[in-house]
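Researcher: We are triaging several targets before committing to wet-lab work. For this one, the compound of interest is zinc ion. I'm pasting the protein sequence and the ligand SMILES. What I need is the predicted three-dimensional arrangement of the protein with the ligand bound, expressed as structure tokens, so it can go straight into our comparison scripts without reformatting.
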Amino acid sequence: MDDSPENRPPTNQAARKLRVPVALVARLAGIVGQAMEHRPETLAPYLNAAEQSGQAYASQSLWCEIAHEEQGVAEVWSRIRRGDVSDPIAARHAFMLLLALDGWSRVKVCDHPRCRRAFADATNAVSRRRCARHTRQQSRA
Ligand SMILES: [Zn+2]
């Protein structure tokens, strides 16, 4: 078999270098962030699982949950495209898309000493350190 670099199977490292526009990932993170802020109970099981059993386990349980849902993916994704993650199914799909495209790097815990709330960093530079509530407080100070 031809073993030139173009014909080797993709490694994990190659898979991570998928060319996904930052703006798309940031928008998705913003949508997931809305779900985390307005319906924290929806994604809490996966965030807790990531903390207690690891991100791979959490991703796997999220995927299993999605695989058992009966709603059509096209319909759910069209709601996500409109930024509507008010129902738990759309929130789970948006979260899975974010993880699939960009891993867990945008899923963070607020560093405010009395908060520790989970949020999704929707900045282009992935530089946010605090949840929406404490980002607002910080900018007023
Ligand atoms: Zn906070």
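Researcher: Any quick observations?
Model: The CA atoms of residues 62 and 96 lie 7 Å apart.
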